[in-house]
Amino acid sequence: MSAPRIRLAGTPEGFDAVLLAGERARQDTPLLHVARDDARMARLAEALAFFAPGVPVLQFPAWDCLPYDRVGPNAEITARRVATLARLADNGAARAIVLTTVNALCQKVPPPEAFRGASLTLARGRKNPPQTLIGFLGSHGYIRAGTVMEPGEYAVRGGLVDLWPAGREEPVRLDFFGDELEAIRPFDPLSQRSSGSTERLELRPVSEVPLDAGAVARFREAWRELFGSSATEDPLYLAISERRRFDGMEHWVSLFHPAMATLLDYLPGARVSFDHEADGVLETRLETIAEHFDARRSSQAASVAGGETPYRPVPPVRLYLDQRS
């Protein structure tokens, strides 16, 4: 039997944090709150830090780009999303409060098995071949850069590997002597100066789009099924075939996985609460998704006629929930 629905009215700003903290204390089941937008989610997280200081709060933000955009989400946003999904996939929400938004909830995500156990643990003083590390980073969404400035980037300079793991507030510098990891030191991305040390580092995927051999093969097959063999000259298809990242490829994320899931699949049996006016936000979001998909699909013929590479959108059902879901 499903849990009863309770509607609260006339509650002052911030009181929802008190209610969530109390609910968390009374229940052992996962707890998910859906905010109207990212600003509301951030304010609620701050309030929970005050009213429930001992309770872990996990935030799952929405992409900061439009549906069917040509650019992908910000690297920091992606890193936060993946860090939360990876923790949930490994049953890390037993006593946590999970916060998300309407936009994030109605978008499908990779299945839990995509992140479950997908980690690499590094320890100071142990043999950790740099090539093994670099292979892991390349297959799990990290981008090679000259200088690490954003989450999800890594740089290699001889025996030094700088990287900014998902979920960390600062990057780390790994100092190798041959295959042995001699030091793990956090550093300031602006000054590039390192300070302190860390004994262990656990790395998780930093992207929702994997580029391992299996994922690339699934993408190629699904792409041809959707768009036909004539679309294999698309720059996106060619880049992914060579296991190179392509700006905006996240909008085709469903082609890389055997199936997609929802955030609720990571929280079986969760109790769910919604912000005031969440229904209206959802209706607007679904209308926006449909409008952007129709616009992209209707512009394909004009792009081909003009000699441009058309934008080939995946059907909304592959990436988003609908009212029936």
Order of helices and strands: HEHEHEHEHEEEEEEHHEHH
Number of strands: 11
Strand share of the residues? 15-25%
Main sheet: strands, sense, barrel = 5 strands, mixed
Total number of helices: 9
Lateral arrangement of strands in the main beta sheet: 5-6-7-8-9
What do the pLDDT scores average to?
89
Q: What percent of the residues sit in helical stretches (DSSP H or I)?
A: 25-40%
User: How far apart, in Å, are the first and last alpha carbons?
Assistant: 19 Å
Radius of gyration: 21 Å
The shape is flat
Key structural traits:
325 residues, alpha/beta, 5-stranded mixed sheet, 4-stranded parallel sheet, 9 helices, 11 strands, 32% helix, 15% strand
Please give a structural write-up.
The chain has nine helices and eleven strands. It has helices at residues 15-26, 38-51, 75-89, 102-105, 130-139, 213-227, 235-241, 278-298, 300-305, and strands at 31-35, 57-60, 97-101, 120-123, 143-144, 153-157, 160-163, 172-177, 180-186, 200-203, 271-274. The strands form three sheets. A five-stranded mixed beta sheet has the order 5-6-7-8-9, covered by helices on one side. Strands 2-3-1-11 form a four-stranded parallel beta sheet. Helix 1 (15-26) packs across helix 2. The longest helix has 21 residues, at 278-298.
